[in-house]
Amino acid sequence: MESKSDIIAQDIANKIKHELYHSGDYIPSEKQLTTLYGTSRETVRRALDQLTELGLIQKIKGKGSLVLDLDRYTFPISGITSFAELNHGLNMKAQTKVITFEKCSHLPEKFLPYFKEEADSCGTHIERLRIIQDEPDVLDCDYLLDPPITDISKSAAEKSIYQYLEQELGLSISYATKEITVTKVDNDIQKLLNLDNEMAVLVASRNYLEDTTKFELTLSYHRPDRFKFVDFARRKHIKL
User: Fold this and answer.
1) Is 100 among the domain residues?
2) Nearest to 135, CA basis, from 211, 222, 206, 213
3) d(CA 76, CA 180)
4) Are residues 82 and 57 in the same domain?
5) How many domains does the chain have?
6) Cβ 180 vs Cβ 106: under 8 Å
7) Do residues 182 and 200 make contact, with C-beta atoms less than 8 angstroms apart?
8) Comparing 4 with 91, which gets the higher pLDDT?
9) Which residues pair with 230 in a beta bridge?
10) Tell me: the pLDDT tens digits for 118-161?
């Protein structure tokens, strides 16, 4: 069942998609949204946090929440958002093609430079090509560690791994550590992503459950000409 904040976030996202709120506009203030949706300010803030993680808005202190330019698809890097959620939230009309699905007794070679400590881990190796507007855009290479993920079907990978883990297995996905680089890729990846050269943006991440159990390693290769990455950071003063 969707929470009130989920419903509000989806409604505002729809208004952005259908240009009721244009890029460069400020959406109504928290106080106005509280009145509009008949809810608490805390619920509105949770909804706005979701939209920030999706890269739809940017909170600007003293001014409000600014609608971002979506001419290029925006992939948030500070949160954990599945491609299926982005596809729905940004109305990308994307397709997913599973090109690798295999059980492994150890980590595949392409993961080793980034995840050496997990080299001997059993798991399920899944590679999915993300196609947006008939163009290949992202190659997601996932390694689901076993344990804790002992079983998953190819059909679940075609739809949404995170939806399967959370709704079918009842797991709670919590946080990730990510490293973002521009790297050379091999001929296979160049062909899959239709790259003009051997360079791609790579996001390497370790993903964790709420109880701090590591469950997934991911190498996500992006076409640098079609994507931008947006984060929101706030300076904090720490006294030692």
Assistant:
1) yes
2) 222
3) 12
4) no
5) 2
6) no
7) yes
8) 4
9) 76
10) 999 999 999 999 888 788 989 999 999 999 999 999 999 998 99
